[in-house]
Structures
1.
Amino acid sequence: MKKVLVGISGGVDSAVCAALLKREGYEVIGANLKMWNESETADKDAEKVADMLGIGCIKVDCSERFKKYVVDYFIDEYLKGRTPNPCVRCNRFLKLRALCDAADERGIDFVATGHYARVVRENGSVMLQKALHAQKDQSYFLYDIGEDILNKLILPLGAYEKKDIRLLAEQFGIPVAQKPDSQEICFLPDGDISSFIKRHAENLPPRGDILFQDGIKCGRHDGIYNYTIGQRKGLGAFGRPVFVRDIDAENNTVTIGDDLFSGGLYTENFTNTSGIQFEDNMKVTVKIRSRAREAEATLKRCGKGVYVKFSEPQRAVTPGQSAVFYIGDTVFGGGIIRKRD
């Protein structure tokens, strides 16, 4: 019987993931990963799920690594005027890596999570693909996980809608069947990025100038970490809608003006998730943030990264976010956006 280590968070998705794999005949072991000041309720919910399913549940303390690789990185990127995606970073360096390490230590064959995406194994190759239902697809957050992790990964929820998962949870008798979905960023329960950075950053940048797109000073900001490219709220009244166009950490300025569309972008790195051979001018679709629509584009190698040329200009290309490339339903790869073109 194949063994699988399932990340159990105390939520409905991970619980149904474990239940489905047990039904399929796997020997399921749970793993509760401690990341960042999790509530006592979440820990107890994870224990309830494991007890109800009749599986063991180990605890793995990842809090120090989480702070170093995710939280400190998150803060540092904002202080540099960039907008990071901590969930991409966490899956790469923490969550899935910790599960794989714990599985390897115990001789467990596979790892699994409640992500809405698919791992397809055909003819000796392993591909990461989008979930069948686009509204819940989370493949964007998994593009950078690495081949060794992908080879061990099982994602049972990729064929389901959320409503189906809650119905399955009821059928399985899972105690958290109607538990609300968690926040997208687990260490920001209130979503207040600015306050979090103020509490945890060692050296906050000073106030600086807000410039209009013609270079004329038009105001003062309280810290560049309060802004992100494309932002409209909180910029004041100028007689017409204005947006954040640029954040310059070196000169400590924020530039605002008309909405900004870009014809392309450069990434600072490139991860080939699929193993498909990279060819210059290859056609893909690309997501420039997790909730963006896919846009048609062509790719060219550019140093360690990639130059992306859009078929149609895209709004608010944001340094620090990931650009993820798709060929059909397959995740071809991706990289972190360095600058727009």
2.
Amino acid sequence: MTSFGTWINTMLFGRKVGSDEFGNRYYTKARGSLYGRERRWVIYNGRVEASKIPSEWHAWLHQTVDAPLSEAAAQPKEWQLGHIPNLTGTRGAYVPEGSDLATGLETPRRGVEAWRP
């Protein structure tokens, strides 16, 4: 969720550069620069999660490249997997085989008893 201040700043000073397959929108400051560097930012689609930014846009945001990759260059090769955001803390999180979470138990209970002095 974008804060009110970021939304106002984007409407007044932002120039849209593009968007990615997740619906995130990328902006740059329409005029001027800060310390000789162009200001760049992202407005997330949905929950704010930095791992939702694909590598080509990450490079642009951090000023590794001057322009974002073209749509054709951003397409994955046939041997590459698609970008997947970090799913930790969600229902899609990785759960190893044999984990209590994989069996549906909320707390570890396998043969463990509380210690009593």
